[in-house]
Amino acid sequence: MLNEDLQTSAKAGNHDRRDAQTAGNRMLGRVIFCSGSKARISVTTDSANPSFAQLWSVGRLISIDLGETRVAALTYAMNVDGPLWSEREPNTLLIDVELLGEIYSTPEGIEQFTSGITRYPYLGAIAHRIRSSDLVRIYENSARGSCIIGQLSQDQSVDAIVNIPEMLSKHFAVVGSTGVGKTTAVTLLLNKAIEKDPKLRVLVLDPHNEFAAAFPNTSVVIDTDTLDLPFWLMKLEEFTEVLFRGQEPPADELDVLRDLIPEAKRAFRGTDASTMRRASEKTALTADTPVPYRIADLLALIDERIGRLEGRGEKPVLRTLKLRIMAAINDPRYHFMFSNSTISDTIMETVAHIFRVPGDGKPISVFQLAGIPSEVVNSVASVLCRMAFELALWGQGSIHTLVVCEEAHRYVPANPGLGFFPTRQAIARIAKEGRKYGVSLGIITQRPGELDQTILSQCSTVFAMRLSNDNDQEIIRSAISNSST
């Protein structure tokens, strides 16, 4: 189907848009400067038709004719060679372009585009409006897994094509100000992705509950009413984020939890504590080991310490910690963590439900975070991203998972002192190592300037929409290899 579409799109290039009937297409320029990666073109406009200057406007591709090859260049700046625009006399425009690649003919006579340049423009080389056939050569992609996502703004007869496997293997980002259509773009990309790869499983972290309606037939919606995310899956740092409501935990209370949680896990397993202590490091339990335990056992261990004659100085600390735990388990907003169904070892059921294994025709899991208490969101996001990576690691690449983070600057902010470190660590691990094991990352943000630039730099495909903030624009320019990306 894609090849047929490309053949249809290629018909746009059967006619030369620089025909004699369109006067603006006769407007030629000359190269007056070239630095290797950039060039400047001088163009003289017709005073009777000044609107022809729009053919050279910012963002448009133009062609520089070198005889055997044609260099494709992107306009990124333009100016008038003089202080004012003349309404009566011809105006000379200075067009700054970035050199993207060249179109050449193979020995078989087939025209192809390459991003490399073997012959650079010389001074005086003729520049003109690019042919539609050249646009087709530049943007065509017939590789397996490619799909059409729209049309070029410069020429509506030429399709915009994305290679889904390549996009997912190297991560992607969608950036743009509020209201420019990021959700619509992501919906299109995900629908195309699951269409091309039926084995793909998608987890969407949705802080505004926007994506449920976008995938009515291919997704399951997970919220606090349908979620059972056992508290014992959390590492100590994630668990304390919940107990202390996002505040820095006191060191003495943290030490108590670090000592007693492994004891509670041993009690649940019915194993003698002294035997466990003699076990090898490989089988020893820590506060971070994902092994079930009961909150009742943890509270009993705290009561046992309180009842001891020694250690009177720590009794206020123990009582305060006990009150924190009881407040959390009695809070109805935390029911998805501390309900009776989260006590048993349900990790396989939890993973299967969240990551759609098997998918049962619904490979997308929309995780609605809006109903989760704000102080718990960071911990939940951390657990989910960590589980996504570990699932891919355990599956040895047999399960391809895509984690989509909406409002990603909340989880991985540019300032290392902000945000929740375990969440940042989990997302960074996917960004840096995920492609080895088949887990991909999709970043969505309206403020790329507030996003960790290390994460953004790992996204080889960037869909940049309108950005109103100058700093955000500069961040995107520095994060991609050239202006055309």
Describe this structure in words.
- By secondary structure, this protein is of the alpha/beta class.
- The chain is 34% helix and 20% strand.
- It has three domains: 18-130, Elongation Factor Tu (Ef-tu), domain 3 (Beta Barrel); 170-228 and 346-479, Rossmann fold; 236-340, no CATH class.
- Helix 5 packs antiparallel against helix 12.
Outline of this structure?
The protein has 485 residues and is an alpha/beta fold. The protein is built from 15 helices and 16 strands.
Question: How would you describe this structure in keywords?
Answer:
disordered N terminus; six-stranded antiparallel β-barrel; alpha/beta; 3 domains; seven-stranded parallel sheet; 34% helix; Rossmann fold; Elongation Factor Tu (Ef-tu), domain 3
Distance between the termini: 26 Å
CATH architecture of the largest domain: 3-Layer(aba) Sandwich
Mean pLDDT equals 81
Strand order of the largest sheet: 12-13-11-14-15-10-16
- Number of E-state strands: 16
Number of helices: 15
Q: What would CATH call the homologous superfamily of the largest domain? A: P-loop containing nucleotide triphosphate hydrolases
Report the structural category.
alpha/beta
- Which regions are unreliable across 5 or more consecutive residues at pLDDT < 50? 1-24, 271-282
CATH class of the largest domain: Alpha Beta
Strand content bin: 15-25%
Q: Main beta sheet: strand number and arrangement?
A: 7 strands, parallel
Please tell me how large the radius of gyration is.
29 Å
Shape: elongated
